[in-house]
Q: What sequence folds into this?
């Protein structure tokens, strides 16, 4: 039952996010547009490029969708509303999202095209940059909760959310999550102006539909993770817990969307340099500060 | 119990199957990713054997590692897509022999070794994670820290060796070749 | 393996890899339409590249075929869709000089205002294109909206748009990541041969993509000041030249640099002409700008030249 509810919540959030995305780009609020364009994708011809690596080409969009849903599976909407309340939830979401890279490499290599291939390998470089900034802030979150269980992590923020307790970790995690979801300004693997769509470039029709759905789901999953780890999950007055989770998740997702609109795409070399020379020291500092707080403040 | 044995067997066979694909394809990326999925299947075996932390860790680590291996294979191999019909195999007889012997040894060890009493009830996942943490930061700390530092040193050393040294001699050499 | 790779060209990192020749354009989101950029890629680094125009004019008038002066002006203006007013003006000036007409200050002034209007619109078009290339959606939307307004605006309306344009420039100055994206990319030192227009003026500064961005933003403000001080724009229209004959030469500072036209007029018909534009020279700089750069940087460098493939004369 939880499985169905969480999946529906995920789909609903994806739909809302797609509506907002359309609203910011076209200036028109059209609630039916995501459904219509989804249907249109089904109707269009789905072209397979010449001499593709067929296995990779077919697997990549589906794999991306699966890992995004798997990541969402350990994130609670309410105290009992979670698909799998794993003892290693905070680690599991890393494991699931590590396969975003695998999916993008497949999508890059599969179609046998230069733009896609460069996009796929670019994301590997991007992973080297952001990976530590996903894992290290989560470490600090787990330190405070003294658990890897996502529901316990939310419980630990009762009274004081992690965004206040460890703001540095929140900022780093938010930026790294945007890089993981390859949203602008970190859209190096797709980069319409540089690679003409990159890993998306060779996908058409129903395959492109799945790929787009997967990308939006990934954003929602990461926004939900941000909510669970930093924004107190389901905590909030008046409204029921699940409503708070959804509101916070959507707010984070929309802010990720809007941030990209007002920024130019980052240079690959700059991303790498800043993540390693600035991001990782800050993440370590965050761990030390949180460690001290955990030890000193009861 | 039977379900557990079933899943261990399924993931075990998947691991072997992907392992075979590693050597049956000439595409370097396919080969690397087949190895990845073989390792992922091993991670799933851990999960089926109720060692959640180890399983998840295995699944997580392999994704990045094998992808990085894939890009190195693409960079260094002449026919990374396997579409040029280049033969990538060598020393076939020796490697078949080595493989058979190693498999035989592994099977013999598996059947003859004394594995101790079977644990009736595995502790729950949270307890395992805690016990693992205690182990890593207690008795085994020295071993793991030494291993970690050694690997880090090796990586830095390898990078340092790989960066070409800018001396007057090899700049002149470079200009000669151009 | 050594036998296979020993004769392959080496990249800067000493690794022998397959090089790919990849076309960018003529229809590519990050580049002006009609421009074809062929890059040889080594991974995501560019080892060499060259740009060609697929829509440029040919500099030869058909042998023995005379063109009516009015038709010539229309043809030249419509051949350069990204700067039609500038080339209309250029053709008018050259023909009028060939016919021996004196300059008329009132006409000149209205024409100059029209030229400055087009400069503003053209630079805004470039900003929108740059926004598209950099994935900077806000800039694309804003610059494109302003460009449309400018193209429709009268002199008075233009003055009213001044705060909006100043705000755009100020906003770009505050945008994070933009400077690190453009600074030090596509450097053209001031001694480089064949520079003209904003690219040449920016070369006196740092000569990189960042300097070119600010040069164009400054020019927008300067042009606005000029329009404010001068008056209403008037589209260049050919004055009555009768059936004059002679040779004429004119130079106009188009939004992309200096354009020069010399022609021979016989009885009100253009017999032959020679056109020289800034883009014809700038397109040759591409090879040097992209060599050894990362792909994204190379494309930014090409974009910052503001090449109009129509204005490339072959």
A:
């Amino acid at each position: 039952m939880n499985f169905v509810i969480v999946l529906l919540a995920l789909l609903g959030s994806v739909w809302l996010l797609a509506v907002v995305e359309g609203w910011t780009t076209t200036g028109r609020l059209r609630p039916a547009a995501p459904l219509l364009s989804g249907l249109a994708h089904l109707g269009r011809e789905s072209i397979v490029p010449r001499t593709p690596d067929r296995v990779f080409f077919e697997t990549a969009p589906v794999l991306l969708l699966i890992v995004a849903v798997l990541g969402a599976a350990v994130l609670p909407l309410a105290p009992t509303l979670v698909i799998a309340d794993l003892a290693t939830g905070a680690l599991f979401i890393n494991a699931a999202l590590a396969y975003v890279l695998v999916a993008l490499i497949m999508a890059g290599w599969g179609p046998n095209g230069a733009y896609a291939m460069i996009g796929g390998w670019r994301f590997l470089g991007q992973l080297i940059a952001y990976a530590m900034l996903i894992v290290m802030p989560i470490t600090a979150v787990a330190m405070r909760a003294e658990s890897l269980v996502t529901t316990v992590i939310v419980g630990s923020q009762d009274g004081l959310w992690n965004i206040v307790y460890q703001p540095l970790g929140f900022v780093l995690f938010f930026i790294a999550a945007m890089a993981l979801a390859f949203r602008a300004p970190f859209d190096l693997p797709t980069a319409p102006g540089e690679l003409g769509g990159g890993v998306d470039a060779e996908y058409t029709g129903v395959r492109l539909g799945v790929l787009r759905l997967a990308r939006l789901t990934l954003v929602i999953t990461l926004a939900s993770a941000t909510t669970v780890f930093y924004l107190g999950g389901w905590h909030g007055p008046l409204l029921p817990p699940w409503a708070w989770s959804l509101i916070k998740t959507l707010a984070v997702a929309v802010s990720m969307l809007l941030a990209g609109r007002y920024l130019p795409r980052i240079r690959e070399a700059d991303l790498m340099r800043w993540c390693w020379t600035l991001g990782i020291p800050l993440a370590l500092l965050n761990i030390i500060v949180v460690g001290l707080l955990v030890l000193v403040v009861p | 119990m039977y379900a557990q044995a079933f899943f261990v067997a399924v993931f075990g066979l998947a691991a072997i199957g992907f392992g075979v694909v590693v050597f049956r394809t000439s595409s370097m990326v396919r080969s690397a990713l087949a190895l990845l999925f073989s390792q992922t299947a091993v991670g799933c075996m851990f999960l089926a054997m109720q060692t959640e932390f180890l399983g998840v860790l295995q699944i997580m680590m392999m994704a990045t590692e094998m992808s990085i291996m894939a890009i190195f294979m693409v960079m260094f191999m002449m026919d990374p897509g396997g579409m040029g019909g280049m033969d990538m195999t060598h020393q076939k007889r020796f490697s078949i022999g080595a493989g058979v012997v190693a498999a035989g040894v592994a099977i013999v060890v598996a059947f003859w070794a004394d594995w101790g009493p079977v644990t009736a009830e595995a502790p729950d996942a949270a307890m395992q994670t805690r016990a693992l943490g205690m182990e890593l930061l207690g008795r085994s700390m020295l071993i793991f820290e030494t291993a970690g530092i050694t690997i880090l040193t090796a990586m830095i050393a390898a990078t340092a060796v790989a960066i070409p040294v800018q001396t007057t001699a090899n700049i002149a050499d470079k200009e000669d070749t151009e | 393996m050594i036998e296979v790779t020993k004769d392959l060209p080496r990249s800067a990192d000493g690794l022998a890899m397959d090089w790919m020749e990849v076309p960018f354009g003529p229809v590519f989101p990050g580049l002006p339409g009609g421009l074809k950029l062929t890059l040889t890629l080594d991974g995501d680094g560019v080892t060499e590249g060259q740009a060609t125009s697929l829509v440029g004019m040919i500099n030869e008038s058909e042998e023995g075929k005379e063109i009516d002066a009015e038709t010539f002006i229309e043809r030249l203006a419509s051949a350069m869709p990204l700067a039609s007013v500038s080339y209309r003006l250029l053709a008018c000036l050259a023909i009028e000089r060939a016919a021996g007409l004196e300059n008329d200050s009132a006409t000149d002034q209205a024409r100059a205002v029209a030229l400055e209007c087009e400069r503003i619109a053209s630079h805004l078009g470039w900003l929108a294109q740059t926004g598209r290339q950099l994935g900077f959606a806000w800039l694309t939307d804003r610059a494109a909206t302003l460009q449309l307004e400018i193209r429709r605006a009268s002199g008075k309306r233009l003055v009213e748009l001044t705060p909006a344009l100043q705000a755009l420039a100020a906003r770009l100055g505050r945008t994070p990541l933009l400077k690190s994206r453009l600074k030090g990319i596509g450097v053209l030192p001031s001694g480089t041969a064949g520079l003209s227009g904003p690219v040449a003026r920016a070369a006196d500064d740092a000569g990189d993509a960042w300097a070119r961005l600010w040069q164009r933003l400054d020019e927008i403000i300067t042009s606005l000041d000029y329009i404010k001080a001068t008056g209403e724009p008037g589209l260049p229209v050919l004055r009555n030249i009768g059936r004059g004959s002679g040779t004429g030469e004119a130079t106009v500072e188009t939004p992309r640099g200096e354009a020069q036209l010399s022609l021979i007029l016989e009885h009100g018909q253009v017999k032959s002409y020679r056109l020289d534009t800034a883009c014809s020279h700038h397109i040759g700089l591409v090879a040097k700008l992209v060599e050894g750069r990362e792909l994204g940087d190379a494309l930014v460098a090409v974009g910052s030249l503001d090449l109009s493939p129509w204005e490339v004369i072959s």
